[in-house]
Amino acid sequence: MSLAPQHNPAQPLLSCQAVNLRRGDKHILRDLNLTLSGGTLTALLGPNGAGKSSLLKCITGELDYGGEIRLFGQPRAQWQANILAHRLGVLPQSSSLNFPFLCKEVVTMGRLPHSEPTARQGEIVSAAMAHCGVEHLANRLYPGLSGGERQRVQFARVLAQIWQAPNALSCPRLLLLDEPTSALDLKYQHQLLTLARALAARDTAVLVVLHDLNLAARYADRLLMLADGRVMADGSPAEVLTPALIQSLYDYPAEVMLHPQSGLPIVS
């Protein structure tokens, strides 16, 4: 039996040290440092081409990089893929799945790394779909869904993959979401990010790429602003979302005010 490396609770769930990425002569990431701890939701922001999605692909092992990435206190290379899949969930920008699978079959794919009775697997799949509000799509063919419906089914798949029973002893997890709200209408944008926040509350570190600065301010504990592969700002929404920084990075003369109830910044 393959056992997962033990995680020291004092260590971050994700640590990136001097991560570099190049494509030809172009620097995509430049000496990037980042640590994430459980119980936090961090929004990764920045203009197009800043390196946001590339950073997530380095963390998942899709891209070769320089520097060091450690997951749950251990170098990434020490993790076996099937064991890491119990703790690391990834929702990409889009899915190219075009085979005529039922939606419940797509969500069941999230349980492939696990060994469990079929009945237990079915319970988890049903619960994950209910959490994401897609249980009514269970017997629909996935390719016939709208883009937003596909994204919600895919999020249910990721949720099923790292699922833990509500009364189970919490195990640290890492959730990476790459522009998860891009195909969703307003209701489901907030639903997905509310679910992500609930996961963060259960010893999970959530890293989400967002373009909507107001969604980031509302749901994230911490904002990480990238530009040209570098970290340009790292802090709370109030610290990062300033007119000067937005003007500098987005070339847009934004106005920032505080919400009268929450006190969070609103960008217009």
UniProtKB/TrEMBL annotation:
Ranges where the ABC transporter domain occurs: 14-253
Top-level taxon of the source organism: Bacteria
Entry keyword Disulfide bond: no
UniProt-listed Gene3D superfamilies: P-loop containing nucleotide triphosphate hydrolases
TM ranges: none
Keywords: ATP-binding, Nucleotide-binding, Translocase, Transport
Record CDD domains: ABC_Iron-Siderophores_B12_Hemin
One GO MF term attached to the UniProt entry: ATP binding
Pfam families cross-referenced by the UniProt entry: ABC_tran
Protein's job: Part of the ABC transporter complex HmuTUV involved in hemin import. Responsible for energy coupling to the transport system.
Name of the protein this chain belongs to: Hemin ABC transporter ATP-binding protein
Species of provenance: Aeromonas molluscorum 848
